[in-house]
């Protein structure tokens, strides 16, 4: 049984990308590396089949009390994914790249205070790695664009029935970009955005949401800036609809810097105990895809 990756070269065509090849959801084939050894990502059969194809998915387990990979009770998993060898070669010279995955949170998922989800990353060589966790050094030589889910308390003015599984999965882009004033201004111009000190910017909080018991397709498009110009772009799509778009960004100041793939990481947190998973629970990931946009 296999899941799939879709690879294509596009000329600004609508989502989803036109498939030209499929591979198994395999660490070796998909270029999985720098994996957290103590946090496995086993292939299992999820409660619902992935919408793309195949019958298996990577399973993330969040034990009760787990916060992040370095805590006393770690949860989730983490690794980097560059795609098959040919795709890795192509993106090294690409100006604009789209990557996608599918995520399923179990029915009745308890969102807690929030947690991380995979997103695109890149930069100059090995400096692209570890562009998170409050990093301040060499921030002009890396970018990391994971997503987050956040707790969203019910509105006191709402007339609809409160559903904690649905209403608490508030989404955002959690962006680590070069620390420039124009980057900050353009991210904060997106409704629902806010800074987090030396940590990533919360961009577009509440622009989309996750619902337990239903697959969600997440896609990101990154267009690198020309060196010396503020013309980079980041866009997030949920189930094929653009929900967050930021233009006028600087993602690099060196032509060697490029998109390197997906930072495939998920956990509850934050780092302090109030971010912990309220119970033992799971999520599943499948349908990984990539496209080079010309």
TrEMBL record:
Residues 57-287 form the Polysaccharide lyase domain. Coiled coil: none annotated. Signal peptide: none annotated. InterPro entries: Polysacc_lyase_14. This is Polysaccharide lyase 14 domain-containing protein.
